[in-house]
Design a protein that fits this description.
Blueprint: H1 6-12, E1 18-22, E2 32-34, E3 37-38, E4 44-48, H2 53-60, E5 63-69, E6 77-88, H3 92-103, H4 109-119, E7 124-137
Antiparallel strand pairs: 1-2, 1-5, 3-4, 4-7, 5-6, 6-7
Helix pairs in contact: 3-4
Length: 138
């Protein structure tokens, strides 16, 4: 299946970390935990610095995957999304604000300070367009 279901979207809209892996050619893949957002259009997006290692690798080979799993203490559940990536120059700061609120909360001095740092850095949006979606729920 290549699309996210409503059940997937409900799960992916929780404040869970995703583990992003980019195609690395001869280099071994190195998954990294990331904040992400599942969109109404069925894509997955995240923000990052335009000169980050993941963006450099994605410019060489625009394939990536993200795996999101339920935390310990819940029944086993995960969703894996793989597909081609686009790097969008706009919307990175808006996405950073939404995700900072989701993951940190912006109603605390620490959250506000963290957002101020993120807003002061250049940001791009990395958008995964699903080609393969796998899931498991116990």
């Amino acid at each position: 299946m290549s699309t996210l279901t409503d059940h997937d979207l409900e799960f992916l809209r929780r404040p869970l970390h995703g583990f992003l892996t980019v195609a690395a050619g001869p280099r071994p893949p190195q998954p990294r935990p990331v904040w992400f957002e599942a969109t109404d259009e069925g894509t997955i997006q995240l923000f990052t610095a335009p000169d980050s290692a993941k963006v450099r690798q994605l410019r060489e080979d625009p394939r990536a995957s993200i795996v999101v799993a339920a935390p310990v203490g819940e029944t086993e559940r995960w969703v894996s999304v793989a597909g081609r990536v686009t790097i969008e120059p706009d919307g990175g700061h808006d996405l950073a604000r939404r995700l900072a609120d989701r993951y940190w909360g912006l109603n605390t001095p620490k959250g506000e300070a963290g957002l101020k740092i993120l807003q002061g850095l250049p940001q791009v949006r990395v958008v995964i367009h699903p080609e393969k979606v796998h899931r498991y729920a116990f």
